[in-house]
Design goal:
Elements: H1 2-16, H2 23-30, H3 34-38, H4 44-62, H5 74-94, H6 96-104, H7 111-136, H8 144-163, H9 171-190, H10 200-231, H11 236-253, H12 260-270, H13 277-294
Helix pairs in contact: 1-2, 1-4, 1-6, 4-5, 4-7, 5-7, 5-9, 7-8, 8-9, 10-11, 10-13, 11-12, 12-13
Length: 295
């Protein structure tokens, strides 16, 4: 039933927009009573989050695992890029309603939702960085940040041309064009006709600020969880479970060296409550980032 609700909501959001669609319309489109819908989702916002979670995870999975450790020749690496792009664009263009909704909805003003979506998109962007680092090889490592942005822009803009403008471009032709463009830009960096605009110092500054950003993000999301459980109907047991877990997390976070295993265990407990599941799972990803940065 959750899948049917998500599909119905996605159809309406892509046609009418998120803000112009109400919960009753989603229930009607699904063919269920409004009360039944609320047994699966606490609000229209939680449906929107579920849509983004499902489709952005599909896009991320389509990128496969990390690039192979064996470098091969430049042509072999471009062939690998070609395969990854075909997989990614096949998934992207298959989910036309999602891409239309995503392109139309530029005015989501809920910080918890924006943060959740941004984290999901950042995972995809980091995989683009890994991909460009692999394709360019060691001598082109200095332009990875620029190349990842260029790749992402090419994919987003040409997907919009195909879906919104109805351009008659096959996936194979689009993959070939993007791959060829990436080769041209890499050659420009290699010959030094193009200079990177995002330097290694930029990346170092970003990494240096990551920890402080993550800590602020953690406390912001913990506050969001607390606000949500106070504003929606939950069973007394669910409220006690979430509140006790929040107390333990806050207590652990005050320590000089918090035990991340304990914190993640408490977040998994919180994630059992549907109304705050997406924030708890988002926080688990934040702690994963903090652990990876320590390694």
């Amino acid at each position: 039933m959750r899948e049917k609700i998500i599909q119905a909501a996605l159809k309406l959001f892509s046609e009418k927009g998120y803000h112009l669609t109400n919960v009753q319309e989603i229930a009607n489109c699904t063919g269920i009573a409004r009360g039944t819908l609320y047994t699966h989702f606490s609000s229209k916002k939680s449906i929107l989050v579920a849509i983004y979670e499902h489709y952005l995870d599909c896009l991320y999975k389509s990128l496969g695992k990390e690039p192979p450790h064996v470098k091969g020749t430049f042509d072999q690496r471009i062939d690998y890029l070609h395969g990854v792009l075909k997989s990614y664009l096949s998934v992207a263009l298959e989910h036309e309603d999602f891409l239309i909704m995503q392109m139309k909805e530029q005015n989501i003003n809920d910080e918890s939702v924006i943060g959740f979506i941004q984290d999901k998109r950042n995972k995809i962007y980091r995989r683009f960085q890994e991909l460009m680092k692999y394709v360019g090889g060691k001598e082109l490592n200095h332009c990875v940040l620029d190349m990842a942005i260029i790749l992402n822009s090419l994919i987003e803009e040409y997907s919009a041309v195909v879906i919104l403008d109805g351009a008659d471009i096959s996936i194979d032709d689009l993959v070939g064009f993007i791959s060829d463009t990436i080769v041209c830009v890499f050659n420009g960096f290699k010959s030094k006709e193009i200079e990177p605009i995002l330097s290694e110092n930029y990346l170092q500054r970003v990494e240096a600020n990551d920890k402080n950003i993550y800590i602020g993000e953690i406390y912001e999301k913990l506050c969001s969880i607390n606000k949500i459980i106070q504003s929606v109907y939950l069973s007394p047991d669910s409220i006690r479970e979430v509140e006790s877990s929040l107390i333990l997390i806050n207590s652990e976070m005050k320590k000089k060296n918090p035990d991340i295993i304990i914190v993640k265990g408490m977040l998994r407990n919180i994630a059992q409550v549907n109304e705050v599941k997406f924030i708890a799972e988002n926080l688990l990803e934040v702690f994963e980032k903090l652990e990876n940065n320590k390694r």
